[in-house]
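User: Second chain of the day. Same drill as before.
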Amino acid sequence: MSWTLWSLFAAMEFMLCLAPGPAVLFVLSSALRSGARRSIVSSAGILAANAVYFLLSAAGVGALLAGSNRLFSLLKWAGAAYLVYLGARAMSGDGLIAPCQEAGLSRRLFGDAFLVQVSNPKALIFFSALLPQFLDARAPIPAQVAILGVTSGIIEFLVLLAYGAAAGRASHWARQPRYAAWINRVAGALLAAAGAGLAAVRK
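Assistant: Same format as last time:
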């Protein structure tokens, strides 16, 4: 593919990744409660879900979801409910405090992040609408999809890494009893806000 098309895609992807959607809010919440290093695991879960959606978009499944109001709503509300559940769990103090002592935390963070992102139907529809605009029909399509997929993953990872690093600066307060409750509330509020934002999504 041409450098012009690739540059336009990279610039658009970067600007869109900066927007504080459910993925960013989840990573911020993870970083606040578990530290910047653990938030990398959450970012990996987000990117794994994006990779699935990228492949589905290339296969045309996004068009099917865009045409089905029932399927779109089902996926959207499932994701919103899960985010609100995670927010309530955080506010109650369940889970992520004292991360160094909690077995299986990384696996849980990865799984939660993957479920949060994979239940966001807007991501699939977005990729389905975006990809064709940057593909050259005269060149091999699979190679172009691979290039755009890798580009998208690298850009989003770097953006999420920056968000996680910024929020992770406050994570040490989460291990101090007098501040832990407030950190939990802020992290839970971020997740609940992400759930509300996902619930408000329209096609």
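DSSP finds nine helices and no strands in the chain.

User: Great, on to the next one.
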